[in-house]
Structures are given as C-alpha cells and as structure tokens.
C-alpha cells in the first residue's frame, strides 16, 4: 500500500473542484522540463479520462527530447500560439498550476493567469509556495517530483487500474528526469514501489531512458566537450566551478533547446565538488540564466535567492542576472567567495 499523499479533506476538496468544473486548464512553469511536461500530461490523461474538457498551456517551448511523449502535441505553447493560449485560459473555470510555487515562474503568462477568475489549484514540490494566491495548495517539498505527486493523487482517486501505458509513461518520465534517473532525491522506497506499479501498467523504462537521455545530436556532444574544455573555471580548491555559454557559442554548435540541460551536473562528478554554477545567455531576453547544482554537504538554494534573483530546491536551484556575461561571472565569483566551504 502507498502512504496517502492527501488528507481526506484535501482529496474531497479536489474531487469537488473537478466535479464542479467544465473547462480545465493545466499550466506549468516557463522553460518546462520533464517533470513539468510529465506531470501536466499525467494529470490531463486522468481528467480527460473523466471526460472533462482539459487543455495544457505551457508558457514557452519544451525540449525536443520530450517530443516523443504521448499526447505532447496537445500542449499549447503560449509564446508560439498566444491567442489560443489566452482563449483557453480565459475560458477556464479551473486551473491547475503544476511544478511551480509562484506566479512569476510563468514569465510572460503571469499576468493572464493572475487576472483569471478561475479556481486555482497548485500541485508542487518546491519550498515556500505562494499559498494566498490559490484556492487549494497541495505543496509537498519532500516529494522528488510533481509527477510522483500526480501518481499519488490518481492512485488515491482510485484510477490506477484504468491507467494506460501512455499515461504511465508520462508520469514515469517526470519522475525520472527530476531525480537524474533516480540518482538523487530518490531514497524513498515508495518511489520504487510506484515505479513497479507503472511497470505493471506496461511502461518500458529502459526505452524511456533511451528516448530522453540518448537522443543527442553530434553537435550537442561537441558543445559539451567544448564547454568543459574551454569555459570551465575552478575555484576554492576545486570545491566550486563556473562555466559560461554564450549565444555566439550556441550558434557555432547549432544549439537547440535542451542541448545544455544536464551539463551543469557534470562537474559534480569530480570528487569533493560542492558547487557547480552555469551561466548561459538567454536566447530571447538580454539576461543571463543561472543554473546551480550542489553536493557534498553544501546547499545552493540560499545562494540562488541571495545572489541570483532566484530559488529552487536545496541542491538544484537557479535564477537570472540582468547584466552582460563578464559582469555575471564577477557576480558568481563574489558569490563563491562569500562561501566558507
Ligand atoms: P535548472 O537549473 O534545471 O534550470 O533549474 C533547477 C531548479 O532551480 C528548478 O527546478 C527551479 O526550482 C529553480 N529555478 C530555476 N530558475 C529559477 C528562477 O529563475 N527562479 C526561481 N525562483 N527558481 C528557479
Ligand atoms: Mn519538478
């Protein structure tokens, strides 16, 4: 048996909100990752199974390595189909916000969502949720992924037996990508019990791994090797490091969305490495995107809040800097200097 995620009060409230709705929209954060897309599709499969009119609206495009996911073509991307997205949000009476804890993570879609009079439900695993802006908040920071939360909810609502292989594959993908294929945040035996339940629904987990992680282009491999060779600098006795990635370099290696995802984890393979910082020029705005990972007893979330206008999880956080790359590097260096490793 799985430990219930929701109290009976929360479960009842969620059921009531779903039953009373006609038009449901599911939203996720800007720059959607595997968990954002996996949890959104996972919930949409469930709601459509109840014959509820349901649509997913993502603020910006998601990486190509997720484009095999069942039903991913049903997703409306706000930055590409603005009028459709606005129409869907405006006609919604119930909006699920998945895998984010604050409206600013919607970027350009923030205002439309905040203005919407629909009932809003948050289902998320980040710390410090903006509770007051939602009608129902299901926030569980100890959960490794929002997709795992969606599984729990569907299971508690009694719909596990009806879960299709495609449905299970979406949930598995989100659980896998938010834990680095079950290499961090994944010591709870229940995570593996859920994987077993998903396998019983027919997923081929080895195939899913290949589709997500072994779908590189030659250019991506060359970009990684270029960055690690030329742009990675070590600090504090190899306890910390920074690498940069500019638009010019992206052009050289025919960068496509998702090509740098995971690269920030690579330096943590060095024994004793505590902090890896990635600074990447944004492709749309004139800002530097900051991505951080930490290990070996150091936690990077506070650093993201204090130095990089961001936040996140204890060991995987990010933010942004409104300045050119050289200044961003100086800021990151100062942030590292402030740490007593
Ligand atoms: P990534 O490095 O994969 O882009 O982001 C890792 C985590 O950092 C995300 O799951 C998210 O929680 C957090 N994060 C990334 N960018 C931002 C940001 O701009 N603001 C906040 N508050 N969190 C961010
Ligand atoms: Mn997540």
**How many DSSP H or I helices?**
12
Shape: globular
Summarize the amount of helix as a percent range. Answer: 25-40%
Radius of gyration: 20 Å
Give me the count of strands. 12
Strand adjacency order, main sheet = 3-2-1-4-5-6
> Hetero groups bound?
guanosine-5'-monophosphate, manganese (II) ion
Distance between the termini: 42 Å
Say what the CATH topology of the largest domain is. Answer: inorganic pyrophosphatase (n-terminal core)
GO molecular function, one term: nucleic acid binding
Organism: Pseudoprevotella muciniphila
Domain DHHA1: 256-337
Domain DDH: 23-175
Question: Mind explaining what this structure looks like?
Answer:
- The protein has 341 residues and is of the alpha/beta class.
- The protein has two domains: 8-213, Alpha-Beta Complex (inorganic pyrophosphatase (n-terminal core)); 218-337, Diaminopimelate Epimerase, Chain A, domain 1, CATH 3.10.310.
- 37% of the residues lie in helices and 18% in strands.
- The chain has helices spanning 8-19, 34-49, 82-90, 110-115, 146-156, 165-177, 189-200, 205-213, 218-230, 247-252, 301-307, 325-337, and strands at residues 23-27, 53-58, 76-77, 94-98, 119-124, 136-139, 232-235, 240-245, 275-281, 288-294, 311-312, 316-321.
- The strands form two sheets. A six-stranded parallel beta sheet has the order 3-2-1-4-5-6, sandwiched between helices. The protein has a six-stranded mixed beta sheet with strand order 7-8-9-10-12-11.
- Helix 10 links the parallel strand 8 and strand 9.
- Helix 2 runs parallel beside helix 5.
- It is globular.
- The protein starts with 7 loop residues before the first helix and ends with a helix.
- The model has no long low-confidence stretch (mean pLDDT 97).
- Manganese (II) ion (MN) binds next to loops.
- Residues 256-337 form the DHHA1 domain.
